[in-house]
What we know:
Layout: H1 17-25, H2 29-51, H3 54-71, H4 82-115, H5 122-141, H6 145-156, H7 161-168, H8 172-190
Helix pairs in contact: 1-2, 2-3, 2-4, 3-4, 5-8, 6-8, 7-8
Amino acid sequence: xxxxxxxxxxxxxxxxxxxxxxxxxxGDELAFGELYDQIAPRVLGLVKxxxxxxxxxxxxxxxxxxxxxxxxxxxxxxxxxxSTWIMTMAHRRxxxxxxxxxxxxxxDSKIGIRDLAVAYDHVAETVxxxxxxxxxxxxxxxxxxxxxxxxxxxxxxxxxxxEVAGMLKxxxxxxxxxxxxxxxxxxxxxxxxx
Length: 194
């Protein structure tokens, strides 16, 4: 009895991407290898068109195939072809990488701007502060002694209105009136518009 075994596999029809993906869902490594061989060039081409950088494109393509291996069970043939599912995944991953890179560049730029030492003219700043200080002293000298005392304690001393009232041994309402009147006069003297 003789049996005729056909060792030539060329007569066997290659599996479709959908069939390969179904087998990948069951952990078939050979099917995964075949799927990779069939579609990897297209995936890499799409990713490279979006990312430009070849090294990043290869990295993202590798991530895509890892995701295919891990999520093949989620593929539903009734919702579309395997190629469409994979290429959509590839496009999404590439766009995510672009956004992530852009966010990183934006973050680095903001940090760089924040940390950038701004040119600072100490002499000009000192002169400006001194001139402003002299203007305030001149305006304060035009207040009544009682107004000047209340304003100095509240704004230079940092005391609350109640504390100023206690220190001067006067009613709280009187302190508030002196402060209000003193600040109005200061505003007018300094030419500050509200």
